[in-house]
Design goal:
The chain has 112 residues and is an all-alpha fold. The protein has seven helices and no strands. The N and C termini lie far apart (64 Å). The mean pLDDT is 85.
Amino acid sequence: MRTALALLLALVPLVWLSLACARDRSAPGLYRSYCRRCHGAEGQGPDREVRLYPYLNLRRSPMILRRDRAAVRQRIVEGHGPMPGFRRRLNPEELERLIDFTFQLPQTPAKE
């Protein structure tokens, strides 16, 4: 009985934290929830995966660098390659906030 109670008490903060993160619909919260895992905390993408999919690095993505709002919107909504679409997870206002957030990421010009 004590073990079960201890386990339950240990899980409560984790559940609370996951619910708190799920409710954060600010642009940084949306990025953390939906983008950071693959694109990295600062949009740089993980090195190994970036070699396979160079535009995981949002800081070098041509559509981000040229501020092509329509292309970024379409990519987020429909997905592309290994990236899933987020049409059903983001409402239009959240989508626009997320696009604005990606445009604010530090930029690194593409290598020539």
